[in-house]
């Protein structure tokens, strides 16, 4: 009888141990297992209406369908993307707040002595969306028909010509500063809080030229409201709308190259499984016909790689632009 009681007792202890183990596993399950269970926000550090805004909104629709939650676009312009980027750096690391970054993200550390966030440790890469050319554009009634016309006018009237950008440190700003340095011209930089207001003033004649992203000015070039003089990439664009547009390098400025790109970051410390979920949703979003049709016609070469690939690309860009900024003495004024 005693032997039987001992066996029953041992069996009871074994069952209890199993129950405790199961409970422990259940309790240890991450709180973000159901991610996402509420809307996800993508901060666009520019005013509405520009290329970054367009890419984020087009992507957001498809990402929301994949995630099963709405993706909200939150425009936070100002300080050459620093205001919006800082807001994301200081957000909870739970995957619900992202930033649609551009080349300004990796250039600001070279242009600014102090940033309100830690560039190297403040963010977790999610995905490089794509790379595109900037386009040197003028309004339809501009007297400038070529890059050489712009250079001639700038040399004849130092400081009189102006170029718009979507903010200090952005691809449009750097493209213009590099142009000034390589052509040895004096052209006044006019920064805006996004490509939308910059293009509005370009169309209105308040500024003379703009090195705008292809995504921001594609429809204006196609409609004839803006004239594309050149692209900033090393080779001509394969996009039908820009295929006949020469590069700045072949238009009399040898060695000129200034690409533009878009990529998603989350705050540092975001759990790896949440990053993986966001990356998978972003990949599917950029592969949808709606996204491809909207952005590829405007020069964006879609990437859609892994977080690690994006991290390597961004670090390479940071090093490249740091050298350009230093050698060409580019400042944010």
From TrEMBL:
InterPro entries: BUG, Bug_dom1. Pfam families: TctC (PF03401). The keyword Signal applies. CDD domains: PBP2_Bug27 (cd13578). It comes from the Bacteria. SUPFAM superfamilies: Periplasmic binding protein-like II (SSF53850). Residues 1-33 form the signal peptide. The keyword Cell inner membrane does not apply. PANTHER family: BLR1237 PROTEIN, TRICARBOXYLATE-BINDING PROTEIN. Belongs to the UPF0065 (bug) family. This is Tripartite-type tricarboxylate transporter receptor subunit TctC. It comes from Variovorax soli. The lineage of its organism: Bacteria, Pseudomonadati, Pseudomonadota, Betaproteobacteria, Burkholderiales.
């Amino acid at each position: 009888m005693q032997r039987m009681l001992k066996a029953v007792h041992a069996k009871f202890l074994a069952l209890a141990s199993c129950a405790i183990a199961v409970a422990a596993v259940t309790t240890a399950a991450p709180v973000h297992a159901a991610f996402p269970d509420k809307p996800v926000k993508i901060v666009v550090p520019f005013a509405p209406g520009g290329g970054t805004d367009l890419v984020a909104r087009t992507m957001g629709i498809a990402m929301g369908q994949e995630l099963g939650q709405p993706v909200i676009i939150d425009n936070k312009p100002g300080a050459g993307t620093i205001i919006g980027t800082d807001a994301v750096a200081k957000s909870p690391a739970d995957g619900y707040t992202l930033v649609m970054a551009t080349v300004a993200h990796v250039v600001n550390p070279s242009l600014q002595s102090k940033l309100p966030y830690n560039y190297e440790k403040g963010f977790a890469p999610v995905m490089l969306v794509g790379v595109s050319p900037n386009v040197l554009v003028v309004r339809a009634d501009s007297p400038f028909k070529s890059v050489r016309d712009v250079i001639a006018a700038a040399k004849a009237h130092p400081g009189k010509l102006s170029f718009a950008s979507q903010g200090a440190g952005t691809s449009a700003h750097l493209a213009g500063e590099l142009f000034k340095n390589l052509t040895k011209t004096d052209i006044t930089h006019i920064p805006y809080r996004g490509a939308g207001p910059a293009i509005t003033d370009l169309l209105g004649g308040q500024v003379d030229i703009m090195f705008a992203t292809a995504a921001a000015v594609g429809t204006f070039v196609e409609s004839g409201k803006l004239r594309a003089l050149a692209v900033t990439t090393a080779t001509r664009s394969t996009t039908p709308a820009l295929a006949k547009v020469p590069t700045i390098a072949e238009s009399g400025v040898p060695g000129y190259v200034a690409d533009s790109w878009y990529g998603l970051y989350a705050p540092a410390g975001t759990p790896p499984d949440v990053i993986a979920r966001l990356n998978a949703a972003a990949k599917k979003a950029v592969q949808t016909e709606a996204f491809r049709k909207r952005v590829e016609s405007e020069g964006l070469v879609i990437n859609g790689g892994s977080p690690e690939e994006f991290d390597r690309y961004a670090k390479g860009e940071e090093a490249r632009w740091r050298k350009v900024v230093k050698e060409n003495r580019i400042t944010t004024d």
